[in-house]
Design a protein that fits this description.
Shape: flat
Distance between the termini: 81 Å
């Protein structure tokens, strides 16, 4: 490879694969579908990388290498190590649960709530109901597994007039083709979702490509104020009252026959005169349909924080892919060695071989239980012992697993391969999980603003759809809260919370929030605070009632004793004792 052929980009960690070298070459054996005329040439390496990673996830890396010219790779044994690494990292990323949290909603149940807390709590309740209806937890797991495996994932929102809510759908990142301009730093103004539709002879359909395009552009027509917010000079969106904008998002959904496409007519240059546009159930043609929003409802999730000037994430398998190849090769060698260990190769000297009566030729001997071989006086039997080699191969498997755990930052403790007897204390275990903590922190940071953006879009689609309960006004910041990714010492947290709250250095809301983060089964922090306060008030009322009853009994006893020496003093002592009990009960 010359210096001019050395490619360094977001997928250069795959350059050692022969199939990546000809990914963009027409007629590639490994990726024939990527050589279609509609796929932009600059996207071929990304799509090839996705296919390689998907092959590892499905134990098909050997088949992929065989297609690239390595026929011996078909015998490679793959035992699911790549998929296990992906699923383990995904489990730590997601934690036990995810919740939609709106900033300020936790103060709504306080005795003196902060301004805007009630509104934040109402929005949080609506977003959580939307999340339940749209199966957000399920969608997040779909999107995040693709992001952890492939490095990228895509979520698309759309307003559904029948359901009166935004719908959420997850797309394969191989269908995602953003059109970045020099001035687009964070969000592209034009996004394509495109994929091929195979031919269906029974239905009489030819092979075609479908392209869904979201594009920001100037509003084509201005009119009088109306339901769509149009005013002279633009449109007033409900999330920015009083401000006029001339930007809107257009949706185009069309199909093109592959046989109609010529060389050079790539995804962004498809001939519009040959397009067959899709039609909505109400008869509206999806050709530059005005969605009446000023944003592209597409959220791209990257698994890692991209480098400067880049937009794509990196798979959790990226830096250990060659180690996974070594592990598969070692597993294949171990399988071959175990075959000769279980059924050894035996050499015989001076043996009398049985003769096949039909052919008159000596029969082959089989190594099996109960077999008896006749040896002459000078006969000898030697067995090839391959168990030492098998032990060495097994030790190499353990070594490779340790390297994969360390270099992927999932750690041996995270993968569950760490021997519990090797951990002297909980502090040592926390140190062992340190790289995993850093990995999950980085992955969650890469997603933080993307989920904030998703919930902002959900609120604005509700406002644009004039949904009941959603009024005009600025959208509130909301985020996705993750549960702890590693086990927490709940007993230590509880002791800390009790001491801090008892000393008055923590509020009840903060104490409940700490217990919630520690993994206690608290469904809603605000409701839990309300229940605790109600129970405390009830117990205080019971104590006051008991103290009052005790005081009444003491007074009745004094009355029955009558006036006598010392009776007044004893009565005053009883009164002071009852007053003290009432004061303590009120506290």
């Amino acid at each position: 490879m010359g210096l001019r052929q050395l490619v360094i980009d977001a997928w250069s960690w795959l350059n050692y694969k022969p199939v990546m070298a000809d990914a963009g070459r027409p007629g590639s054996r490994a990726f024939p579908e990527l050589a279609k005329t509609w796929v932009p040439p600059q996207e071929l390496r990304r799509l090839a990388a996705y296919k390689v990673l998907a092959a590892y996830d499905n134990n098909q890396a050997g088949q992929l290498s065989a297609v690239g010219g390595d026929e011996s790779a078909l015998e490679r044994r793959e035992l699911g190590d790549a998929a296990n690494l992906v699923d383990t990292a995904l489990g730590y990323l997601l934690g036990s649960e995810q919740k939609v949290v709106v900033e300020g909603a936790e103060h709504a149940d306080e005795e003196t709530p902060t301004p805007g807390a009630a509104e934040a709590a109402a929005v949080q309740d609506r977003l959580r109901k939307w999340a339940d209806k749209e199966l957000l937890t399920f969608r997040v797991q779909q999107a995040e597994r693709a992001a952890v495996l492939l490095g990228d994932s895509v979520m698309v929102l759309a307003w559904n007039p029948e359901k009166q809510r935004p719908t959420l759908r997850v797309y394969d990142p191989g269908f995602f083709f953003p059109q970045w301009d020099d001035e687009d730093e964070d969000f592209p103004r034009r996004v394509h979702l495109a994929w091929e539709l195979p031919a269906d002879d029974d239905a009489g359909l030819k092979a075609r490509v479908r392209r869904v395009t979201y594009e920001l552009g100037p509003i084509s027509e201005y009119g009088e104020p109306g339901d769509d917010g149009l005013v002279a000079g633009g449109r007033q969106y409900p999330w920015e009252p009083g401000r006029t904008s001339n930007v809107t998002c257009y949706l185009t959904d069309g199909e093109w026959l592959l046989e109609d496409l010529k060389n050079g007519e790539t995804l962004d240059r498809l001939p519009m005169d040959k397009a067959a546009y899709r039609v909505r159930p109400d008869g509206t043609e999806l050709n530059r349909l005005d969605l009446m929003i000023d944003f592209v409802p597409v959220v791209h999730i990257a698994n890692t924080i991209p480098d400067g000037g880049e937009h794509w994430g990196r798979s959790v398998l990226a830096r250990v892919l060659q180690a996974l190849d070594e592990l598969a090769a070692t597993d294949s060698d171990s399988s071959a060695a175990s075959a000769t260990t279980g059924t050894p190769i035996i050499g015989l000297a001076g043996a009398r071989l049985p003769v096949d009566r039909a052919t008159g030729r000596p029969q082959e001997l089989e190594v099996k239980a109960g077999a008896v071989w006749q040896l002459g006086e000078t006969g000898r039997m030697d067995a090839l012992d391959t168990s030492p080699q098998l032990a060495e191969l097994r030790a190499r498997v353990d070594h490779l697993l340790e390297r994969i755990a360390a270099n992927s930052r999932v750690t041996a403790a995270g993968l569950g391969t760490l021997d519990a007897t090797e951990v002297p204390s909980g502090y040592a275990l926390k140190l062992a999980l340190g790289p995993l903590d850093g990995l999950i922190g980085m992955m969650r940071l890469a997603r933080e603003h993307k989920y904030r953006l998703l919930f902002k879009m959900v609120q604005r689609l509700y406002q644009a759809g004039r949904a009941e309960g959603w009024t005009a006004g600025e959208t509130l910041p909301a985020r996705l809260a993750w549960a702890p990714h590693t086990p927490t010492d709940r007993g230590a947290v509880l002791e800390e919370v009790v001491k801090a709250y008892g000393a008055g250095v923590l509020s009840l809301e903060t104490a409940v929030a700490m217990l919630l983060e520690a993994g206690y089964p608290i469904k809603d922090a605000s409701q839990e605070v309300e229940r605790i306060r109600a129970k405390a008030e009830q117990e205080a009322a019971v104590r006051m009632a008991e103290a009052a009853a005790r005081r009444a009994r003491d007074e009745e006893d004094e009355d029955q004793e009558g006036a006598g020496p010392g009776s007044a003093g004893s009565k005053r002592l009883v009164e002071k004792g009852s007053e003290r009990e009432l004061v303590e009960a009120s506290r």
